[in-house]
Design goal:
Blueprint: E1 2-12, E2 15-23, E3 29-37, H1 43-58, E4 67-73, E5 75-81, H2 88-94, H3 101-120, E6 123-124, E7 133-136, E8 141-144, E9 151-152, H4 181-196, H5 202-206, H6 211-219, H7 236-245, H8 256-270, H9 278-298
Antiparallel strand pairs: 1-2, 2-3, 3-5, 4-5, 6-9, 7-8
Helix pairs in contact: 3-4, 3-8, 4-7, 8-9
Bound molecules: adenosine-5'-triphosphate (ATP).
Length: 303
C-alpha cells in the first residue's frame, strides 16, 4: 500500500492520527486518515487496535466511517476515509459554520442509523461521544468512528470501558453487566450536547470534581439539565425521548431501531425543504414533528 503521511491531525488514547495520501492500485490519489499505534504503547493497545481491525472488516454502512485497510511499518497503521469537516466535538468547539436545528436532528438520525446497524450485528460500541462522530460532505453527513471498544454482546459484558460523562450507570456498577442499551444512554447525552452546545457535566469538571466522583453522581441519577437544550419550546417530545435514552433502567431506554423510526418519520417532513428556508420554518417544522410523533406514539411507536 503506497501511503504518504502529510501532517498530524490529533491523537487518541492509543495512537496518533495523520492526514495522508493513498496512491491506489489504479494510481488514483485519495486523501485518507491514518491512525498509527504509538511506539512504546503497551500490549493492550496492540490488542485493541487488532480488535478494531477485526471489527472494522465486518462493518459497512453509510453512517460508519469507511475502513480502507491496515499495514505494519514498525507500528500498526489503520487507513480510513478522511473527514474534512472534523468531528462533531470539533464543530461544537469552533462552530465555524451555522448549523440549524433541523440539520442537527439529521445528524442525530444518521448517528442512530449507524448505531442501529451496529446493534443489528450484535455489537456494542461502548464509547459513543461527539469526538467519535465525524462530519463529511460540508457538514451534512455524519459517520461513527473509533471501533477499538466495539464488542460482540452475545457474551456477558463486564469490562469497565467508555468515557466519563457518557458512560451508562450499569457499566460502572459492581457486577458491571450491561447490554447494547449502554450505547443508548451515551446517545442521549450526545444528543443533549449537540443541542445544548455545552460539554456534559462541565460545571462539575470546572469545580475540579474527580472523574470517578462525577461518574458516581451519574450512577446515582445525575443528568445534564434538559432545559439547556436550544430547541424549539414546543419540542417536548424530543426532550422526552432524550430523557428516555438516559433513563437509569436500561430496559426503559428505547432501542436504536425505535429512535430511527421516530426521527426518520419526522425528518421526512422537512428534508425536501431548501436549507435556505429552514431558519424561518424550523419552529413550525418542529411543531409538526411533535404532532406527527404524538400520533405515532399513540400507535406503534410506544416509547
Ligand atoms: N477519519 C478521520 N478523518 C479526520 N480526522 C480524524 C479521523 N479519525 C480520527 N480523526 C481525528 O483524529 C483525532 C484522534 O482520533 P482518535 O479516534 O484516535 O482519538 P479520540 O477519539 O479523540 O480519543 P480516544 O481514542 O482516546 O477515545 C481526533 O481529533 C479525531 O477527530
Amino acid at each position: 500500500m503506497e501511503i504518504t503521511l502529510i501532517k498530524r491531525i490529533g491523537s487518541g488514547s492509543y495512537g496518533v492520527v495523520y492526514e495522508g495520501i493513498w496512491i491506489t492500485n489504479t494510481r488514483k490519489c485519495v486523501k485518507v486518515a491514518v491512525k498509527c499505534l504509538e511506539k512504546g504503547n503497551n500490549k493492550d493497545s496492540e490488542t485493541n487496535i487488532l480488535r478494531e481491525i477485526r471489527n472494522l472488516q465486518e462493518l459497512k454502512h453509510e453512517n460508519i466511517v469507511t475502513f480502507h485497510g491496515a499495514y505494519r511499518q514498525k507500528n500498526i497503521c489503520l487507513i480510513f476515509e478522511y473527514s474534512d469537516c472534523g468531528s462533531l466535538y470539533d464543530y461544537l468547539q469552533k462552530k465555524i459554520v451555522r448549523v440549524s436545528n433541523i440539520e442537527k436532528l439529521h445528524w442525530m438520525l444518521q448517528c442512530a442509523n449507524g448505531m442501529e446497524y451496529l446493534h443489528s450485528k450484535k455489537t456494542v460500541h461502548r464509547d459513543l461521544k461527539t469526538q467519535n462522530l465525524l462530519l463529511f460532505n460540508n457538514y451534512r453527513t455524519l459517520k461513527i468512528c473509533d471501533f477499538g471498544t466495539v464488542k460482540q454482546y452475545a457474551t456477558e459484558n463486564t469490562e469497565l470501558i467508555g468515557t466519563i460523562g457518557y458512560m451508562a450507570p450499569e457499566v460502572c456498577t459492581a457486577d458491571g453487566k450491561y447490554t447494547e442499551k449502554c450505547d443508548v444512554f451515551s446517545y442521549g447525552i450526545t444528543f443533549w450536547e449537540v443541542f445544548a452546545e455545552k460539554k456534559p457535566f462541565d460545571e462539575l469538571k470546572k469545580k475540579n470534581m474527580h472523574p470517578l466522583a462525577i461518574q458516581y453522581k451519574i450512577s446515582n441519577g445525575a443528568r445534564p439539565d434538559i432545559n439547556d437544550m436550544h430547541i424549539c419550546k414546543d419540542s417536548d417530545l424530543i426532550k422526552a425521548i432524550i430523557e428516555k435514552c438516559w433513563d437509569q433502567d436500561p430496559d426503559n431506554r428505547p432501542t436504536m431501531k425505535r429512535i430511527v423510526a421516530f426521527l426518520g418519520i419526522d425528518l421526512r417532513l422537512y428534508i425536501p425543504l431548501n436549507f435556505e428556508d429552514i431558519e424561518i420554518t424550523e419552529c413550525v417544522s418542529l411543531r409538526m414533528v411533535d404532532m406527527v410523533s404524538a400520533v405515532m406514539k399513540i400507535g406503534e411507536l410506544d416509547f
